């Protein structure tokens, strides 16, 4: 029985999955050719967008998005979302309110807290600039 088995050689292992009479290099070229002989499409060349300039508020608070109605900021850990009324402690709300007032250039501009994060948590916070 041992005489009928083909001898396991390196060439036999390399030429596995090839057609009879086809060596490994021919098979590789055959696999690279697309079906039907159609040439592959060249990738679309795109312009690289310019990196966005991030705006930072005091306390390393990054402004992620801002439009006429909302402002989204990235709150770092260890900073309050909003302090108690009358408290003079740094908070994200105070920094956002200051920015909105500076942009409107008038006192009485309001900002609403849409949701809060704990002092220990970091993440995105949404503030409303209008009542809509």
Q: Can you give a write-up of this model?
A:
The protein has 132 residues and is α+β, with helices and mostly antiparallel strands. The protein is built from 3 helices and 5 strands; from the N terminus they run ααβββαββ. It is elongated and about 90 Å long. The N and C termini lie far apart (86 Å).
Please describe the biggest sheet, giving its number of strands, its sense, and whether it closes into a barrel.
Answer: 5 strands, antiparallel
Instruction: Give the CA-CA distance, first to last residue.
Output: 86 Å
Structural class: alpha+beta
Order of helices and strands: HHEEEHEE
- Gyration radius, rounded: 32 Å
Q: Main sheet: which strands, in order across?
A: 1-2-3-5-4
Total count of helical runs of at least 4 residues: 3
**What is the typical, i.e. mean, pLDDT?**
78
Given as residue ranges, the uncertain stretches (5+ residues, pLDDT < 50) are: none
* Helicity, as a percent range: 10-25%
User: What would you call the shape?
Assistant: elongated
